[in-house]
Structure formats: structure tokens, C-alpha cells
Specification:
about 100 residues; alpha+beta; four-stranded antiparallel sheet; two-stranded antiparallel sheet; 2 helices; about 40% strand
């Protein structure tokens, strides 16, 4: 799993691949728009896209992340789910 801008994430919960999605062979990338609150954890969110069966797992993990004060208050996060066992996370500032 790879996180872009990981130096600005103080804490992140692991993203679990949903067993039902894995059993169905579902792969893909979930893109989220996350807004950091005053405590620098993800409070606002919007799913921009990705397989429906993977969205909840990505969202519940990302909302537990804590960002440093240097991180932009709005982050776009991509979580890539792959049955080959690799998951990559990417983060970028949005405004």
C-alpha cells in the first residue's frame, strides 16, 4: 500500500478489503473528497467514484485518519483495491 504525501498523515487506519467484494472478484479505485476538521481528522466526505462494494471500506478508514497542521484542509484520497494483494492509497490537496 502506498500513500502519497504520507508525511502529512499523522495516523491512518488500515483499509480492509471487504470479504464479499473479494469473493466476487471486485477490484477498482475509490476516490474520496475528505475535509479535515479542527482536530485535523476527516469529518466531511464525499465519494467521487469507485465500485459500490468497496466504497464503505475506503470511507470508514479514511475518516479515521489524522492529518498534520501542514496538510491542506481538503484532501482528495484514492484507495486502489487489487486482488493481487496490493492496495495503494494516494492523497492530494484540493484547494
Amino acid at each position: 500500500m502506498k500513500v502519497s504525501g504520507a508525511d502529512r498523515i499523522l495516523h491512518r487506519e488500515p483499509v480492509e478489503y471487504p470479504a464479499e467484494a473479494r469473493a466476487k472478484g471486485i477490484e477498482g479505485t475509490v476516490i474520496l473528497d475528505v475535509h479535515a476538521g479542527a482536530g485535523r481528522h476527516g469529518i466531511g466526505r464525499a465519494v467521487i467514484g469507485g465500485p459500490m462494494d468497496l466504497r464503505r471500506a475506503a470511507l470508514s478508514s479514511v475518516l479515521q485518519w489524522h492529518f498534520s497542521k501542514e496538510a491542506a484542509p481538503r484532501q482528495q484520497v484514492s484507495v486502489e483495491f487489487s486482488l493481487s494483494g496490493r492496495r495503494r492509497l494516494r492523497r492530494r490537496s484540493v484547494g
